[in-house]
Design brief:
It contains 16 helices and 21 strands. It has helices at residues 56-65, 125-137, 143-147, 175-182, 192-196, 207-212, 258-267, 278-286, 315-322, 327-334, 365-374, 392-407, 419-428, 445-451, 467-478, 485-501, and strands at residues 35-40, 70-75, 84-92, 95-100, 106-111, 157-161, 164-168, 221-227, 231-236, 249-254, 272-273, 300-304, 339-340, 381-388, 410-417, 433-434, 436-438, 504-510, 515-516, 520-521, 537-538. A hairpin with a 5-residue loop joins strand 4 (95-100) and strand 5 (106-111).
Amino acid sequence: MRSTKRILVAATLAVVGALGLTACGSGSGSTSSDSLTIVTPAQAQSFSYETSATGYEAAEFFKNTGASLLRNKYVDGSGSEARHEDYNAFTGVLAKRYDESADGLTYTFHLDTDAKSTAGHELTADDVIWTMRRKFAVKTSIIPFISAPFITSASQFKKVDASTVTLTVAKKSYGYTALSLLANVGYNVYDAAELKQHTTSSDPWAVKWSGTHPNFGFGAYKVTTFTPGEQTIYGANTGYAEGAPAVKRIVQRVVSDAGQRANLVRSGDAQIATQLRPADQVGLQKGKQAQVYDVTSNAMVYMPLLTTSGPFKDVAVRRALAYAVPYDKINTNVYHGRATAISSILPASDPGFDGDGLKANTYDVAKAKAILKSAGYTAPVAFTLTVNNSVPDLQETATQIQTAAKAAGFDVTINAINSSAFQSGLAAKTFEASLGRDYAVVQSPPYVLSLFYTPGSVINWPDFDSPALNQDIAAGNAAGDPTSTPAGKEWNAAQKVLQDQQPTIYINNVQPLNAFAKNVQGYVFRSDNVIDYSQLSLSAK
């Protein structure tokens, strides 16, 4: 299989709905070698990527019940680094291999037609083509926004025969980003035969049906039980393209309190805990009670600011607030050494990276006050900072900001709401400011820069539209290889626009906030930050 110079992956993210399958199964911890328990603060509330694609729990659901044509190769880390993806190499999942045409414009995918969906149907080219049509036809799908200009239409995909499909891109330089998109859950292939049984005139792509029925993917697991607000139970898909997973049954229990989740791993009643407080992770690690991994993280803590209404419509207020965030205190008091400051949303390790003139945000009360005074503000600027109440580190970060920003001329009210309301509010762009922990799964510079700022996109949380930013990204795309020095100069210009306009305040990069029992093997850090259950195994204690 051909490997490209640098391969990356796309963005995933949660939703709203309800589902009833079989009766509730046991949620107790397990010590057998083929079953484990995961404790998490929330669960996927809808199973349709096209209606909403944000949130950790939904992303993990999509990864483990679905499969894409390719994925990045998993490699061992060096030193204390966890096993992770190699962004320079692909391996097949639903495609056994792929070929690239001489002109670099057409990719041919040879499908594994022995692979079976969680509904039991064998993979065909028709599944791929129908899936791509759905992704671009459904109005609420984020795929058109996150894929342009690399993939802009389902018509770029063609069926050659029952086991072969092609993708054609407009420019050779679009190739690696397009392939990388295909390697992520946004491009999971669906069981068209299953979904077509549930289409109606009002639901021609079975989007509504799939929101409450999870088993239409080709992933390593199917959902056997879903009890809203309590737990999800997964069973292994023996027809999975990469082979039946070692762990046959996974119980994902909802436990709202982060400290209790940590204690359940400590006591052995759960084998994995997600969305922990860094302080609890450090405690587990120091007590040698669990495994906590270090990675080269792409997860960012950030604060989108609504630029089209409210106090942050004024760029001066956005610039002032950037000086009112206590970055160092957040890294120390909230993340306990498991976070690092960032000056750029592009990794400095990228080939062709140009950091000229870029600098990290700093806490400076005097500068914040001076900016507000110069802009005519004499009273404290009041705003509401909304946070997901199932993410403890972000609630703690909000408190740090509330306290520090007061001294700089801001009056911050914290609004902590549940996951469903949080995701809905983000999509509706109703929050003046919010805190998120997210990532660009495709690390291709034009993808990262466009992801949260494409005009009209449902994931453009700040509702930001900058002609200068759009022009710089277009110039970078026209410069050829996205990792080249000429392209790097355009990405640098785009980042300077973001640093000047501050539609989003980037706070830090954080380590994965999970912990694993000492007998759990196989964790892989993925750029979508979720756990690939198919890689896990359990040893005897």
